[in-house]
Amino acid sequence: MLATDLPFEKPLVELRMKIEELRRFTEDKGIDVSDEVAVLEAKARALADTIYRDLKPWQRVQIARHSDRPTALDYVRGMCEDVMELHGDRNFRDDPTVVGGIARFEGCPITFVGTQKGRDTKESIYRNFGMAHPEGYRKALRLMKQADKFGRPILCLIDTAGAYPGPAAEERGQGEAIARNLIEMFQLRVPVVAVITGEGGSGGALGLGIGDRILMLEHAYYSVIAPEAAATLLWKDPSQGERAAERMRITAADLKAFGVIDAVVAEPFGGAQRAPAEMIAALKVAVRESLDMLRRLPRADLLALRQHRYRMMGSFGELPEEGDLPEVDVPLPTLQE
Amino acid sequence: MLKDLFPKKKRYATISPHPSARDKVPEGLMNKCKSCGEILLYKELEKHLKTCPRCGYHFSLTAYERLEMILDAGSFEEFDARLTTADPLDFPDYQEKLAKARAATELVDAVVTGRGTVDGLPLAIGVMDPRFVMGSMGVVVGERLARAGECSLRERIPLVIFAVSGGARMQEGIFSLMQMAKVSGVLARLAEEGILYISVLTNPTTGGVTASFAMQGDVNLSEPGAVIGFAGRRIIEAMIRQKLPDEFQTAEFVLQHGMLDKVVHRKEMRQTIAALLSLHAGEGECVGN
Ligand SMILES: [Zn+2]
Hints:
The structure holds 2 protein chains of 2 kinds. Chain A is built from 14 helices and 9 strands. Chain A is α/β, with parallel strands linked by helices. The longest helix of chain A is centred in the N-terminal third of the chain and has 20 residues, at 10-29. The relative contact order of chain A is 0.11. Helix content of chain B is 35%, strand content 17%. At the A-B interface, α7, α8, α9, α10 and α14 of A face β4, α4, α5, α6 and α7 of B. Zinc ion binds at residues 33, 35-36, 38, 52, 54-55, 57 of chain B.
């Protein structure tokens, strides 16, 4: 099994290895077993189909975290021309976790910002495993305000387990940095397309995720809390991540059904990590469609719709007006929306 | 005293003068200071607005106690008191958890919102309550605060929010996260309209509440010793495998690092807010044309 294969892919990987072995054996000995190979290959296809056709939320989380998936810079370089990365928050330092800059998307200049993960250990450490510090959010905001100034649409590529929980991040105001982005992204007078490409971890994802079109890749997740952390809080057991992933409704399909995101971008069979170029091309189409749609909106409508989108998040009911609050048995609320 | 606050109509079954069951030693008579261990008579504690006269420790307050300390007597008019969550994820055991919290607190959710006056100056106000599922933010907290903000917009009156929160309401999943955006959107409109928003971060204010409306004030205030942070202390300690110093994430620490405007003793909170409201009254006629 290769390091890049996921645990639930094991039966398939083993079967494929067996087929490969049989083939080699055939070549060495000059015996024809092509019928057997064909049977096994059909079996492998069927097995792959069963595994990938109906992935469980926890399996998707594992795919979303796969280190072979395209990174923010892979997407930008694959989708755009004239990519120029810009650096720094003009205040403290350049956070290598948050990348951003200017590029040309189908002829038009855009600003991109995103959280960047590393492929190998060294780069992962350099990128702080995709977990940004406050200066990363401030760098992104600087670039987004620059986009506002020069009238460029903004593309946000989000793949983070969350904002970094460290002492320095707290000292420099992690909460304040995210909070500021949340307010100021409502005031950007240019279209904002945000894509959850892998992990959409909590406030750290939302801090780059206020937009007019929110897309999610098929196996990405978006959650108020990492499944393992939810399991720790709910059942005092971080190994119950699988159970939490089911309960929390964090898959792209769930969030589309909730109306939290606008569209799900299909991934190549088995996940983006298996065919990065195909994934990048598919996302390019989805981003083009989103930008085309948003460009047609008058600026005032764009801002009003952005407000409206988030103002409507979450349904609620009302408890009966009169009488005491029930001691134990609370009547189910009537839905308003 | 609390009766003065509710001149209009009774909204809850009963409001006992000190409904907090948590911090009490013998029922209503004495409290032990969590910080210095001093045994305090309840009456004495109340006289000091639930701060320790010996060491200054600030005990936690219920939403209604807080409102009573801040607003002019009889001025409070509550909004949306019956708003309740639709339990969007149909989360296991959540209804039971809410029912228990309601029975214990006589609240419907973790925030109380409305309109009132301080020294005669009108404001919209939201006060979170730490007893209700750790003051966590779900759809009701987001919606009620958003509506309080919209009252500010409509009437062009300042907004004051007292935050106290363990963070997101996990049982409401992504909808809990989206409340950060919802309230921020309304506050962005206040900012555009030049309407004052005062945020008061009380003990503890953490997680998604810190990363949204609590840190978005034109003026951010806090009380002495309040724990304020984004990530929880234990999560950070696990991450760096070190103990953090006691003062880490206290109001004083956050003030020193530039994220707060002022740490205000509870006894001065009302007058501090009154002064800010007064300094922001008027529509900019002092700058000329
Ligand atoms: Zn004391």
